[in-house]
């Protein structure tokens, strides 16, 4: 079995920046900055605006719209804000804006799926969409996308890179209900829930809680905090249709994600009615604890984020199968930090039980096992690409084959790694690590994008039949 590394590699680019609100600090500092701007003469203001335009406007799509929105965040601290000129509002917005280099540290942990648009392609070519974990200042991780074509020779050809990176708008229309609270918040009894209407938005729930009596607030302090937390973690975002997919960046939005959205595992999921939806499991991290989240989208423009919950949501690295099996959703995951498990559920968002698929048995697996993305359906079974950790914290990539009708049954497993770090791949931010979050099949070959030492990304290919035959033979 020949595994071939492709020439194409992706490295981080510190020039990729997004424009964000700059939280200067406490109210006194905000007012001090506003006072200093107000002291500028009309001549100075015009020079400021000219400098802003010359230095920054060409670096950002929707530049004026963004800095105006940042002005709106401090408008309430101004007297007679309605009398301020549009130019001065933009200058104020500029002082409360900052650039963030999303890839300054690294670009890694890729997941690849077929692009939603497969029209107007040459024979034996496929259009793909690749998600990546981008890490910048403060080691904060976001999700970005790249698109391109895999040609008839299995070569990776990326679409022309845009010079812009854009952030989404938060859609505050998401509706919650009492049952959502019951399922997600422990000890949320009727004495508390009776204070909520049957349905509500996140902004409405904050207003409701602020009106609670001191007695209710004290008695249910933990449950109230949990309600705010879970409502904050379930949200909708929308990107402008004037932006391209490879310009879009999903940056941490909820408090639980404040230190990063990590290791998105994308899958194109086939519904029973024949429609497709893209799901992606990822880890939300706040610097202290983590939570498993599920991203949903049809077009990679509008996204809905959900929290996975239940007794079986205990660890990282959840990966959803691309269709229901025997009427149930299926996920493979790591549990207990070292074993690969499988879970079944009638409810996409709630997972209560898991059973073991694989435990470390080979020396290159002794420390830890996990998946490298969602299983791939083949004629021979479900192909599950895995990762394993051995001595010196070396991460390598392996593979399992699972029964199509009963994926709890392991047909075979590679005895040796499919890929392990070579001399060029072992150096980087985290040495000796190869890692992937999702592969795809193209022209009878498995295309594996993989990160090298948490620093940059490459690609490998292997004949699918050769791989499944090798797994079945236990080689």
Please give a structural write-up.
This protein is of the alpha+beta class. 20% of the residues lie in helices and 35% in strands. The protein is built from ten helices and 29 strands. The strands form seven sheets. Strands 8-11-16-15-14-13 form a six-stranded antiparallel β-sheet. Strands 1, 26, 27, 28 and 29 form a five-stranded antiparallel β-sheet that branches. Strands 4, 5, 6, 7 and 12 form a five-stranded antiparallel β-sheet that branches. Strand 14 (276-285) and strand 15 (290-297) form a beta hairpin. It is globular, with a radius of gyration of 24 Å.
State the secondary-structure class: alpha+beta
Amino-to-carboxy terminus distance: 10 Å
The number of distinct β-strands equals: 29
- Helix coverage percent of residues? 10-25%
How many helix segments?
A: 10
Low-confidence stretches: none
Average pLDDT rating: 94
Radius of gyration: 24 Å
Overall geometric form: globular
Going across the biggest sheet, name each strand in turn. Answer: 8-11-16-15-14-13
What percentage of the residues does DSSP assign to strands (E)? Answer: 35-45%
- Biggest sheet architecture: 6 strands, antiparallel
């Amino acid at each position: 079995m020949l595994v071939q590394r492709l020439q194409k590699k992706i490295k981080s680019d510190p020039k990729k920046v997004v424009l964000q609100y700059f939280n200067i600090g406490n109210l006194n500092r905000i007012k001090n900055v506003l006072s200093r701007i107000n002291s500028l003469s009309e001549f100075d203001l015009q020079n400021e605006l000219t400098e802003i335009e010359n230095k920054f406007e060409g670096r950002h799509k929707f530049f004026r719209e963004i800095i105006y929105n940042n002005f709106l965040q401090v408008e309430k601290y101004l007297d007679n804000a309605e009398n301020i000129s549009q130019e001065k509002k933009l200058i104020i917005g500029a002082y409360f804006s900052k650039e963030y280099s999303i890839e300054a540290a690294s670009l890694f942990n890729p997941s690849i799926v077929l692009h939603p648009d497969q029209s107007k392609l040459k024979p034996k070519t496929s259009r793909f969409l690749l998600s990546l974990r981008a890490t910048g200042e403060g080691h904060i991780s976001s999700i970005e996308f790249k698109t391109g074509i895999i040609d008839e020779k299995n070569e990776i050809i990326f679409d022309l890179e845009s010079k812009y990176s854009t952030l989404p708008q938060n859609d505050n229309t998401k509706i919650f209900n009492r049952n959502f609270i019951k399922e997600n918040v422990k000890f949320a009894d009727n004495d508390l829930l009776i204070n909520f209407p049957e349905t509500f938005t996140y902004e409405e729930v904050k207003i409701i809680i602020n009106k609670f009596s001191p007695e209710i607030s004290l008695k249910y302090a933990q449950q109230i905090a949990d309600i705010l937390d879970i409502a904050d973690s379930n949200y909708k975002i929308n990107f402008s249709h004037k932006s391209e997919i490879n310009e879009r960046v999903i940056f941490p939005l909820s408090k639980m994600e404040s230190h990063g959205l990590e290791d998105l595992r994308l899958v194109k999921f086939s519904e029973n009615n024949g429609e497709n939806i893209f799901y992606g499991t990822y880890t939300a991290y706040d610097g202290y604890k983590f939570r498993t989240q599920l991203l949903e989208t049809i077009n990679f423009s509008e996204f809905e984020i959900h929290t996975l919950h239940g007794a079986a949501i205990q660890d990282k690295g959840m990966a959803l199968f691309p269709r229901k099996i025997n009427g149930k959703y299926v996920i493979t995951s790591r549990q207990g930090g070292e074993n690969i498990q499988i879970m079944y559920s009638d409810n996409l968002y709630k997972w209560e039980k898991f059973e073991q698929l694989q435990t470390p048995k080979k020396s290159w697996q002794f420390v830890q096992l996990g998946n490298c993305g969602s299983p791939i359906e083949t004629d021979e079974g479900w192909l599950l690409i895995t990762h394993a950790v051995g001595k010196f914290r070396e991460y390598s990539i392996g593979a399992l084959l699972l029964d199509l009708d009963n994926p709890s049954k392991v047909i075979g497993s590679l005895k040796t790694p499919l890929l392990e770090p070579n001399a060029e791949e072992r150096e980087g931010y985290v040495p000796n690590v190869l890692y992937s979050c999702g592969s795809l099949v193209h022209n009878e070959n498995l295309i594996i994008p993989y990160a090298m030492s948490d620093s940059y990304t490459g690609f490998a290919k292997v004949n699918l039949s050769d791989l499944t035959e090798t797994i079945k033979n236990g080689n």
